[in-house]
Amino acid sequence: MRISRAKLTTDIVLAVVFGFVCMPFAVLGEWADIVALLAFSAALAVRRASPAWSLGLAWGGALMQMLWLRDLQLYDVAVLGVLYSTAAHGGRLVKWLGLVSAGVGAVFATGYLAVAKPLIDNAGFIGPQDTVSMVVLTLVLFVASIAVLVLSWTAGLLVRSVRDTREVRRREEAANRERELVEYRYVVEQERNRIARDMHDVVAHSLAVVIAQADGARFAAPTRPEAAVDALGTIAGVARGALGDVRLLLAELRHDEAGAPQPVLDDLDGLLAQVRAAGLDLRFSETGQRLPLGTGHQIAVYRIAQEGLTNALRHGDVSAPVHLGLAWDADGVTVSLVNARRADAAAPESHAFRHGIPGMRERAQLTGGTLLVEAGADAMFRVTARIPAQAGRPA
Amino acid sequence: MSGIRVALVDDQALFRAGVRMLIESQPDLEVVGEASDGGAAVELARRERPDVVLMDVRMPVQDGIAATEQILAAAERDGVAPPRILVLTTFDLDENAARAIRAGASGFVLKDADPEFLLAAVRTVHQGNQVIAAAATRALFAHVGRGSGRRPAPAAWSELTPREREIFALAARGLSNGEIAASEFLSEATVKTHVSRILAKLGLRDRVQLVVFAYEHELPGAP
């Protein structure tokens, strides 16, 4: 397992400190104690860098200690750290080897401390009453050692699972952020395409007309001077209309540039004022009690109103009043927009007329709502959007 | 009057009006009708039998590509000479313009082209002995067809005589019959015969198709 330099340094420093603390006891013992201490310290130093080596070194130290018949010493505490590390940092194999080591180690330690060592030390001086106490002592020792060893291994396992959970959550969050970013980029891309389309519809079409009219008039003038005068009027009208559209487009762009937060219901007033300033006779009505709407739902209401009004301004009869209504009820809000079609406006099927409607519908559907568009025979154009109140998160 | 009969197809009435003034200022040209979408254009072509149709590609209801196909198919069905179709486009690298040419249009003109160029283009496609804006057409197909690579020459290519291949190469560069005749020391009538034989052998409708054919195929033995 790859670990950071800082972690390795920490482990080494702690191992050295451990070594110094245990050194006085080891020095009081034999040289074998010092070798075992060095092995245990080394095991602690690499416990995260290589749990496998750590486990091996600890086993080496313990076996050496037993072969040289040494007493239990302070440095044996290192075994707990090593077992903990096998569970917390080891690979699959090392982790389970750690648990096996805890069991086998407990058996070895008990056998060594309770049976082998006293036998060798007292060289066969065992009465029957001693046997009973020895069995009891052995059992107690075994239970204690296996409890301590397995407990430290389990602690490592616990830490590991906590860490894994946190890692999973962190990955999930990263994935969420990534997805949000992609969605954001998609929205930006859509917006850019929309602006490009608007530019084409407004600027390219108008300029094509201006060019055709100007060229036509220039060629027609020698024989029909009055045609030239008419053409000049047409050119001025088309250019004026295009400039108005460009102004609207730039206003939208500038709005985006400011990086302003997404508009909510309270921004609606600003939008209405803006549209009225552009020369639209807008009648706004609101009925019912406002419900708390989620931010996404508020944006949907705002954007649908904005897109609808822009369409009315661009393709509708600007001299007739435009009605925008918000009707609230217990379940949500109904946004309705009614405007008169211009007599010379493009046919209802044309793309200029249909412009923006897919976007409005998409916004309504994202909130779980619906959008209905009607181009009535009475030359009125109606957009009705239903935005439900539930499923909205508080802002 | 035996002028060239022109039909205008564009969804913007004011644009049509401008082009109409331009065309009607010419003694040899005559506007025989206007249409604002593809469907109306097919009907107009059937009714008025124009010589040249100026066709916008992007239109509501039915676009210029479909209209081009239908007008040519209808003329073939009725057994009359098909009109030449000139595509009007806003962008010089418009994929729709390329598709209209594949559908049988004789060339494309930008909406902001000089009026003199537009008028010349109408006369040129009507005569049918020269391709308008051959270089621009090649650039258009280079742009549209990028990445697709060239296809191997069809079997019909090998039926061309070496002489015909030479003339094919010149015509593919957009040269007129007169220019080809001058550079090859031939009479114009001979060149015309050669070109029509080339078009017949390769199964091409007209000279702009020849330019596209030259661009899209690997042509071994082409000078």
**Helices and strands of chain A, in N-to-C order?**
HHHHHHHHEHEEHHEE
Strand content of chain B is: 5-15%
**Uncertain spans of chain B, ≥5 residues at pLDDT below 50?**
none
Q: Approximately how much helix is present in the residues of chain A?
A: 55-70%
Q: On the 0-100 scale, what is the average pLDDT of chain A?
A: 82
What profile does the largest beta sheet of chain B have?
5 strands, parallel
What would you call the shape of chain B?
A: globular
Modified residues (4-aspartylphosphate) (chain B): 56
Protein name (chain B): Two component transcriptional regulator, LuxR family
GO biological process, one term (chain B): regulation of DNA-templated transcription
Organism (chain B): Agromyces cerinus subsp. cerinus
Detailed description of the structure:
The complex is a heterodimer of chains A (395) and B (223). By secondary structure, chain A is α+β, with helices and mostly antiparallel strands. Chain A has eleven helices and five strands; from the N terminus they run H-H-H-H-H-H-H-H-E-H-E-E-H-H-E-E. In chain A, strands 1-2-3-5-4 form a five-stranded mixed β-sheet, covered by helices on one side. In chain A, helix 3 (51-67) packs antiparallel against helix 4 (78-89). Chain A is elongated. The model of chain A is unreliable at 349-353 and 391-395 (pLDDT under 50). Chain B has two domains: 4-127, Response regulator (Rossmann fold); 151-218, Arc Repressor Mutant, subunit A (Orthogonal Bundle), CATH 1.10.10.10. Chain B has a five-stranded parallel β-sheet with strand order 2-1-3-4-5, sandwiched between helices. In chain B, helix 4 (95-102) links the parallel strand 4 and strand 5 (107-110). In chain B, helix 2 (38-48) runs parallel beside helix 3 and helix 7 (162-172) packs across helix 9 (188-202). The chains are: A alpha+beta (395), B alpha/beta (223). The A-B interface holds A 200, 204-205, 207-209, 211-220, 222-224, 227, 231, 234, 238, 346-347, 349-352 and B 11-12, 14-22, 24-26, 60-61, 90, 111-112, 114-115, 118. Chain A: The chain crosses the membrane at residues 12-32, 52-72, 93-115, 135-159. Chain A: It comes from Agromyces cerinus subsp. cerinus.
